[in-house]
Amino acid sequence: MAGAQGGWVLTATARSPTNIAVIKYWGKRDETLILPVNDSISVTLDPDHLSATTTVAVSPSFDRDRMWLNGTEISLSGGRFQNCLREIRQRARDVENKEKGIHIRKEDWEKLHVHIASYNNFPTAAGLASSAAGFACLVFTLAKLMNVSEDGAALSSIARQGSGSACRSLYGGFVKWVKGEAANGSDSIAVQLVDESYWNDLVVIIAVVSSRQKETSSTSGMRDSVVTSTLLQHRAEVIVPSRILQMEEAIKNRNFGSFARLTCADSNQFHAVCLDTTPPIFYMNDTSHRVINTVERWSQFEGAPQVAYTFDAGPNAVLIAPSREVASLLLQRLLFFFPPPPDTKLEGYMVGDTSILQEAGVHSAEDVASLPPPPETKDKNNAQKYPGSISYFICTRPGKGPILLSEDQSLIHPVTGMPK
Amino acid sequence: MAGAQGGWVLTATARSPTNIAVIKYWGKRDETLILPVNDSISVTLDPDHLSATTTVAVSPSFDRDRMWLNGTEISLSGGRFQNCLREIRQRARDVENKEKGIHIRKEDWEKLHVHIASYNNFPTAAGLASSAAGFACLVFTLAKLMNVSEDGAALSSIARQGSGSACRSLYGGFVKWVKGEAANGSDSIAVQLVDESYWNDLVVIIAVVSSRQKETSSTSGMRDSVVTSTLLQHRAEVIVPSRILQMEEAIKNRNFGSFARLTCADSNQFHAVCLDTTPPIFYMNDTSHRVINTVERWSQFEGAPQVAYTFDAGPNAVLIAPSREVASLLLQRLLFFFPPPPDTKLEGYMVGDTSILQEAGVHSAEDVASLPPPPETKDKNNAQKYPGSISYFICTRPGKGPILLSEDQSLIHPVTGMPK
């Protein structure tokens, strides 16, 4: 091991996207390997707005594996971290860095420890699949640092053991997580259906819903559903397989009507299974219901789905519009019914790619206040509004998979080996 | 027809209970005959607190059928009213009232018109199955007036054509609505499982939840579910049949644990099917969810179901306790988390049989304010309360079926033939 003793530090830094399922994953057939009861399909979101960035550093001076998430040290003792670390270490190969005079042999990796620093460019607690981006990024970055030769599919199978939905964050665009058949999980992998440029008109708007409720973790929630819901098995065995085929077809044909119908129906069915669980799990709240009703009234008025909605294990709405034009009509509706609380500026209430807002002619909180009720509103003079029930909106789009970042974007100091 | 011309008026008056399903009816296989996709089981509620009272009057001076509901004339042109009227008229027999010198022959009924006055002793709009009590009472009273000899089962089949769940209000205690097989609906009838004295420790507390939302009618809601939910058929064909058997067993054995588990699971599954409908139907709101969480936390703390909850096509919670003692513990919890709004008296907030409240030591709004958090509360110093989210509570119990009332309780004037 050349260059050791003194304490060289070698790092790799990468950024990985989060993703939102349009055909939902709910229920494991194997808790340890994280093998699902059905296939799922997701769309990867633009990492510019929602992503995890992770640096993994290795140095002979490190005496144990350590990790910092958003600046705070967290325990790596959990089985999920250990599984990912072990699986990547087993596949580690020789690494040579001539510039730094470092040569790590394959067999050295078992003795070397790593420091991991990760941060999300969005609130971790907001229920926006931070663990999917985080584990995808951890596995991708570890694999880069350790010169692992496995392809995305093999890495996805490792990321899956950190957090099921993380496997889908190894690719951009639309991604299918194939449930697989093998007992060891080797064929439970993510595959890219189409990349992010294939259907690039899509616009994604996330409504982060205010909530004081503590939510059931998805891990314990889906465990309860598997044990107690009498509908879950029927969904997994009978309904999802045909929906997966229809969804692949809708994506291939960029058929937005079909895509939206399937996305909404599957989100609702996932929440139906949660409700069918003992004790019942409520992830959506009254605000979530009102967002759905806003979309459904609009689509009914127009006679066809205008936008798709989907909700994960929390009250936040993820809305997908077929174009910037429709997204701008959606934003007008959302801001009409869910305006910012009094004395709140539009900046901060609408983040991400806010250019659509400009196109919609909404430049300030005053513009929001003068928005007319949408044409589908029944009682236009008396439309109920819900200021303060949404914390903020994120405007984004489908995005690409993990990318390696340059050394100057490292989150770990190249000399001390500690988070910057 | 003796005594006619001048304008005699003959009346019959009866009172019928409402009922709440513990295994739910959701979905028709025949819209006109109102034939369900599955059996259901309900408990009849005490008519002292929740019932419809109906007078039907007949007179040769009436020139058409007319009806008044809660003092306001309503149209009888709907198919459901017409079906009930036609079915009973077809079974009408000779009626003789010597005292008044009236003799109506079987064949006269086709030419005679009726005036119907009905009122509910609870708010019609509160979503408390007023149509079940109303149609049961209409059919029962018409049958009495017209001297119909058919038994309760046959009458239930007629009431069913007014409102499906009305058939279950023809009996007290626990009642099963057998879905039947016949195409003409003749075997889709209600049967009494046990009468109201069989399991007479049960206490029922209804939380009438404040809501500004306009709800989907159950008629259109279940039609949408039948057409669009991919879970409804599985529920109706696979899950409900076994639950019906288990529920009959639980009732027969007065096994409250099993009764509560089945009741809660079936309520939640009915709402899951609503959520699985396109567009999704939300009957429960955040307050409904909080009532459920209150019960579930308590039951989990005690290690066994303490009370059962069930929700119909609206946000109101119907809670069933195994005894007055447990009901009093339930009331303490409900009043702790859902106190009356400030400056509200306890009278009016707690109606029906309020004696349990006295037993619980709660005599005033001040007593409510000083209730301690229940032992299962995690953060006792910081428990979240929701004043104003419940309009009022009704304390009641299982009750008896329809009864004929005396002439002095008639809602129609014996001379004018008009509502009093």
Automatic annotation (TrEMBL), chains A, B:
<keyword id="KW-0752">Steroid biosynthesis</keyword>
<dbReference type="GO" id="GO:0019287">
    <property type="term" value="P:isopentenyl diphosphate biosynthetic process, mevalonate pathway"/>
</dbReference>
<keyword id="KW-0753">Steroid metabolism</keyword>
<dbReference type="InterPro" id="IPR036554">
    <property type="entry name" value="GHMP_kinase_C_sf"/>
</dbReference>
<keyword id="KW-0456">Lyase</keyword>
<dbReference type="InterPro" id="IPR014721">
    <property type="entry name" value="Ribsml_uS5_D2-typ_fold_subgr"/>
</dbReference>
<dbReference type="InterPro" id="IPR041431">
    <property type="entry name" value="Mvd1_C"/>
</dbReference>
<feature type="domain" description="Mvd1 C-terminal">
    <location>
        <begin position="204"/>
        <end position="404"/>
    </location>
</feature>
<dbReference type="Pfam" id="PF22700">
    <property type="entry name" value="MVD-like_N"/>
</dbReference>
<keyword id="KW-1207">Sterol metabolism</keyword>
<protein>
    <recommendedName>
        <fullName>Diphosphomevalonate decarboxylase</fullName>
        <ecNumber>4.1.1.33</ecNumber>
    </recommendedName>
</protein>
<keyword id="KW-0547">Nucleotide-binding</keyword>
<keyword id="KW-0067">ATP-binding</keyword>
<keyword id="KW-0756">Sterol biosynthesis</keyword>
<dbReference type="GO" id="GO:0004163">
    <property type="term" value="F:diphosphomevalonate decarboxylase activity"/>
</dbReference>
<dbReference type="GO" id="GO:0005829">
    <property type="term" value="C:cytosol"/>
</dbReference>
<dbReference type="InterPro" id="IPR029765">
    <property type="entry name" value="Mev_diP_decarb"/>
</dbReference>
<dbReference type="InterPro" id="IPR020568">
    <property type="entry name" value="Ribosomal_Su5_D2-typ_SF"/>
</dbReference>
<comment type="function">
    <text>Performs the first committed step in the biosynthesis of isoprene-containing compounds such as sterols and terpenoids.</text>
</comment>
<feature type="domain" description="Diphosphomevalonate decarboxylase-like N-terminal">
    <location>
        <begin position="17"/>
        <end position="190"/>
    </location>
</feature>
<dbReference type="InterPro" id="IPR053859">
    <property type="entry name" value="MVD-like_N"/>
</dbReference>
<dbReference type="GO" id="GO:0016126">
    <property type="term" value="P:sterol biosynthetic process"/>
</dbReference>
<keyword id="KW-0443">Lipid metabolism</keyword>
<comment type="similarity">
    <text>Belongs to the diphosphomevalonate decarboxylase family.</text>
</comment>
<dbReference type="Pfam" id="PF18376">
    <property type="entry name" value="MDD_C"/>
</dbReference>
<dbReference type="GO" id="GO:0005524">
    <property type="term" value="F:ATP binding"/>
</dbReference>
<dbReference type="InterPro" id="IPR005935">
    <property type="entry name" value="Mev_decarb"/>
</dbReference>
<keyword id="KW-0444">Lipid biosynthesis</keyword>
